[in-house]
Amino acid sequence: MTPVSGPAVVFENVSKAFGPKQVLRNISFAIPAGEALCILGRSGTGKSVTLKLLMSLIKPDQGKIWVDHDEITHMDETQISKVRRKMGFLFQDAALFDSLTLYENLALPLHRLTTKSQVEIDGLVERVLGQVGLQADKQKMPASLSGGMRKRAGLARALVLEPKILLADEPSSGLDRITAAEIDELLVLQKTEYKTTVIVVTHDVHGARRVGDRFAVFDKGDLIAFGTAAEVEQSEHETARKLISEY
Description:
The chain is of the alpha/beta class. It has two domains: 1-86 and 163-247, 3-Layer(aba) Sandwich (Rossmann fold), CATH 3.40.50.300; 91-162, no CATH class. It is 37% helix and 26% strand. It has a six-stranded mixed β-sheet, with helices on both faces. Helix 3 packs across helix 4 (118-131) and helix 6 runs parallel beside helix 7.
């Protein structure tokens, strides 16, 4: 399954174990560029490990992984750092620096990783903060932001480097339903307006149905269903059928 022009991410026969525990077993799937994939499954089924493999924080025991046509499986840290610049990361805890203002949190990676001028940086930060509705809060410290604002700030920080691929780990975790829906809408906007490929690990099936074009359902280390919501609803696996319908 060598990737062609379409897929943004490809997993080919990927397996991963930690000691005697087999976490992923012969996982294969491809995500078309510009689509959203939502990864579903019970806790401990390999969802977050899939993100860590994609970020090359860990390596597979077997199989190959492509990111934007780059085969990353055997890259060294220098090589993989270039690939990671194509990706943005929205973590559960927003991953903000508490000693920096919101503006400074977004400007920092632009100063460190790009050659943009101060004027360009100011403009980009303003635009991204506008996207997530935090333009008026740019001088606030993270401690003064609500949970929903912190999540939107984390999303802004993930987007400021204009990634081709956005990874989100439990983006609605700890949020009320209205705020969670707002985060989902921002993810959809990123996909539709900016053609970013979005990959979401989530327990929130309702949110996944709002965001996802395709769904990957994991169970005990196996990928038991992959496809559109309608295709997963017709899966031969009862676990997958029930999970996608829990909303």
